[in-house]
Fold Major facilitator superfamily domain-containing protein.
Amino acid sequence: MHEESEEIKTLVHSTLFPLAPFMINRINHGTDDILTDASASDPAHSALSQATGIMIAFYAIGVLVGSPFFGWLGDRITQRRGPMVLGVLIAIAANVIFMVASAYWMLLVARFLQGISNSSVWTMALCLIADNWPEDQLGQQMGKLTSLYPLGMMTGLLTGAMYSKLSPQAPFIMAVILCAVDMCMILAIVERRQAPKAWFGEEEDKEHMTDDDSVETLAPTPPAQKVPVWQLLKSARLWTALYLTLTVAIAMSSSESATPLRLVSQWNFDEAAVGLSQIPFIILYIFSSVFSGCLCDRYGTKIVALLAALTLIPVTICMGLPDHTVSYWVIVGIFFICGGLLASLQTAIYPEIAGVVHQRNNAGSKDGMAMCYGFYNIAYGVGMSIGPLMSGYVYAAFGFFWLCVVLGAFYAGCLPLVFCFAGKSGKLVVRPQPPSSTPAKDEKALADSNV
């Protein structure tokens, strides 16, 4: 259920994606028209691009501010619902501000609040999944979560039609309603710490225990120790995952800022067309997320991330080539391919972060999990800050093609890091151990006896 809650949360945040340039122009100039015949070097067009980038970056600043706090809080509380409910309430406040905004600074405040909301909900949702599934199944489960992100985004893109055909307030009224639904779903979550033990197989394990197992359980187990933050930050594997996160965030936020302007200036798209043009990207993103998650569990995260980053380099550069002299279906087709590849790269990040926590803990503890996912949110926030600002200035000064070249360079930077540090071992492909027919506790006892 927490996965469906994330889909609604993404829908609420993605409401702004196709609308940002039109909202800014309506507030500043009293019209939704955004210079369909202007070139990227036109001063008014450049100013709008930069204003859109700054507005999107304020969302990232909110993520940067909220993530350390919620990461710290997540490692010190036993339930996740409270912070998630707080995040939804903040999202409702942000959408109300969007509805009544009459000045540019009000848009910045609302976008900042959306970032705070996201830092709470995403950090706690990722912790919920890590709490309830073992490490060798996290790829598939995180892939499902990643697939719901663009599904919510795809629904949010339809708000472009609501904005142009109904009213400027209609998308945000819908977002408030969905936040209320999200609140109900979060309150209905039954967390593992509060559920009967039989739900997670603890009683079944007891039935399979032998006398030797019973004696073994009486033996003292090493106490779980707190993992200092500095020890987590010493992990090259964690820094690799954070760089991948930074790259994905820069790519996504750059596209969010520059792509609508490219489509408007080259093919005269309106609000609804800008939103609908992203649907192919999102469709393959959804299916690729689940498929890539299964590949991560079966072959390891290293090979999945390497192939995705390597392929993204030429595909992203090619995205900068089409202009008004060719059909817009060319760039839409490239969006389609980029969606699948970006999903593969992002899906590999979550098991990597959980793997760092498992490596640094003893006695099955997951201390530091919330903080590591807080680091993930911080890296994502930094990328969301860099992406819009970078894309706004590169697009205005050099054009869309060179922006795509810069993004390709970020993907190239992923290759040596992933090859050297990602995964559980130095192997390129890591296959999971075949499951044993004996109970888990007997398997552990046998392994200990062999040592």
Observations:
- Confidence is low (pLDDT under 50) at residues 35-40, 202-219, 436-451.
